[in-house]
Amino acid sequence: MKAKSLQVVPLGGLGEIGKNMTAVRQNSGIVLVDAGMAFPDEEMPGIDLVLPDFSYLRDNSDDLRGILLTHGHEDHVGALPYVLREFPAVPVYGTRLTLGLVRSKLQEFGIKNADLRELKGGQTATVGGYGIEFINVTHSIPGAVAIALDTDAGKIIFSGDYKVDLTPIEGEPMDLGRLAALGNEGVLAYFGDSTNSERPGYVPSERVVGDTLNEVFMRATGRIIVASFASHIHRVQQVVAAAKKHNRLVGVTGRSMIRNVQIARELGYLDLPSEMMVDQRDLRRVPDSDIAILTTGSQGEPLAALSRIAAGTHRTIEAGVGDTVIIAAHPIPGNERGVARTIDGLMKRGAEVCYSPLMPVHVSGHGAKEEQKIVLSLLKPRFLVPVHGEFRMLHHHANTGVSLGIPRENIFILENGDRLQFVDGNARKLDSVSAGMFLVDGGGLAESSDGIVRERQRLAEDGMLVVIARINAQSGQSLGPPDVVSRGFMDAAEANGLMDESIAVVSQTLERTASRRVTDWGELKNEIRKDLSGFLAGKTRKRPIVLPLIVEV
Ligand SMILES: [Zn+2]
Ligand SMILES: [Zn+2]
Predict the structure, then answer these.
(1) Strand order from edge to edge, sheet including 277-278
(2) Distance, CA 44 to ligand 2 centroid (Å)?
(3) Cys staple from 6: which of 153, 321, 540, 552, with CB 3.0 to 4.6 Å?
(4) Are 440 and 50 within 8 A, CB to CB?
(5) Residues annotated catalytic, as ranges
(6) Can you tell me the distance from the alpha carbon of 353 to that of 332, in angstroms, rounded to the nearest whole number?
(7) Higher-confidence position of 279 and 540
(8) pLDDT digits (tens, 9 = 90+) for 92-144
């Protein structure tokens, strides 16, 4: 790489929502901004989470100098344990709450001795030859920052996730003054959150949700159950405030909710006095009118507490007539059906359910178009790179930039793996590095490839045929016709003729292999698979998985 040049390589978060991760590289080394994960969609059966493919870091493994975290949401820190497993000595920078959440996550993965270094908004540090600065922003979690990097090529800024909330629930306001000062000093490039770039106007303050909660708490006479993202500490705080105002105690259920409430209380981000708290075991002892229960499951996740309550399978909490359930979150795309199922289940039990958009029990944590304009106007970047979002969101953010006078040729809509190079105040796109996704199966224990997912998709769509052949181990002769069993492939009635034909096809295969005295079962299975798959594909245009089983006799 030429001296004074800089490359920025997004490894995730572009053309998608989630798994935000960007590598910044100059001669002095690489720093990584965020290490997030994404949730699987319906086309990934059995997959628990999705990570960015960070083979770019492996290919440059001697150069990674530090990891900078903008805030503690999973789509920004969820991949961190997987990165640290391979780069255990790399220092990680974040604010107090971000590192608090990260610390407990790393514990779950058995990662000790990670080098976690706390920085506050407004503080600076030198990491791998870069000057870095954290700048307070407002978002749906406290301790969120934008990050400015002083590089060989100039100053670049990552917004992280932000909204311009002028009346935040807790903590520092967004440091618009510092953004303006940076803009006056000169910003080479700005990598800005595009999540809500399609939305006109401003996103309302989080306080709006507090007003709604108050109204619901005022009306409710029975038990109140509030589901929210466990990381949404501001919203949790507002539930606590409403409970306090209406003389209710607070119970907490759901593993991640219990954990995050504990971390946020310990670190002073959540004001929930212990005399207001009810232990899970004592939930039933408190009269319905005197308690509010915080829970997970706002996304309809089948195993989360609220889904169990809706299905009537929760160990201690039942919801019924007289109870009020508030779903204080918006479904992430892909989760709509699960959320709808939860709402239906609760209503069938007789509970009253309050949810967005019927009631303002949720506001977004990402700024809309006018807020994006504010930040762009303060920073006045020479180059704009819209990040965090699907293509149309990046596109609209780019248009907003153009409307503010940024020349279109200075705006880059990138894809994961693209390398954007800055030299002498100019920018251009270089050829890209590999940056796909990496699928994690089974609670982070086993990692699976695309191949397994493709196989599951085939199973789901085309089903499976099991072929059982009885073969003499010495001669390779088949003893009688093979059995063919269908699972999810075809209706028995429809398949009747096809089954006989399939048996005939396999019988022919077995005659052929017997004449060659094939006794290598691997070869035999391959032949069966090839012949039968070919036959079925021609007959039905389907490709069920063919599973040959050889019984030695
Ligand atoms: Zn976020
Ligand atoms: Zn995000």
Answers:
(1) 277-278, 249-252, 291-295, 224-227, 324-327, 352-355
(2) 21
(3) 153
(4) yes
(5) 193, 366
(6) 19
(7) 279
(8) 999 999 999 999 999 989 999 999 999 999 999 999 999 999 999 999 999 99
- Which residues are within 5 Å of ligand 2 (an ion), measured at CB? 75, 161
Using CA atoms of 524, 527, 531, 537 in order, give the dihedral in degrees to the nearest 10: 110
- Taking alpha carbons only, the member of 115, 79, 122, 111 closest to residue 99 is 115
Is there a contact between 506 and 550 (Cβ–Cβ < 8 Å)? no
Q: Which ligand is nearest to the CA of 13?
A: 2
Cα–Cα distance between 320 and 126 in angstroms, integer? 56
Burial degree of 152 (CB within 10 A; 0-12, 13-18, 19+): middle
Contact indicator for 479, 446 with CB cutoff of 8 Å? no
Side-chain half-sphere CA neighbours of 35 within 13 A: 24
Quick one: pLDDT band at residue 445, thresholds 50, 70, 90?
very low
Spatial CA neighbour of 403 closest among 368, 367, 369: 369
CA of 423 to the centre of ligand 2 (A): 29
Report how far residue 121's alpha carbon sits from residue 188's, in angstroms, rounded to the nearest whole number. Answer: 21
Determine the Cα–Cα distance for residues 401 and 14; give it in Å rounded to an integer: 17
**529 Ramachandran zone, left/alpha/beta (phi>0; psi -120 to 50):** alpha
Residue 255 half-sphere exposure, CB side, CA atoms within 13 Å?
6
Please give the DSSP secondary-structure letter assigned to residue 284. Answer: G
Neighbour-count burial of 38, counting CB atoms closer than 10 A to its CB (0-12 exposed, 13-18 middle, 19+ buried): buried
Is the pLDDT confidence value at 52 over 80? Answer: yes
CA distances for 41 relative to 15, 192, 298, 333, angstroms: 15, 25, 17, 9
- How is residue 9 written in tokens? 């390589």
Q: Which ligand is nearest to the CA of 193?
A: 2
Ligand nearest to the CA of 140: 1
The pLDDT assigned to 451 comes to 63
Ligand 1 centroid to 164 CA: how many Å?
14
Instruction: List the shell of residues around ion ligand 1, using CB closer than 5 Å.
Output: 73, 161
Gap from CA of 475 to ligand 1 centroid (Å): 65
The kind and range of the H/E element at 544 are none
pLDDT in tens, 331-357: 887 788 899 999 999 999 999 999 998
Strands 116-118, 92-94: pairing kind? parallel
What are the angstrom distances between the C-alpha of 119 and each of 77, 165, 229, 367, 480? 16, 22, 25, 24, 74
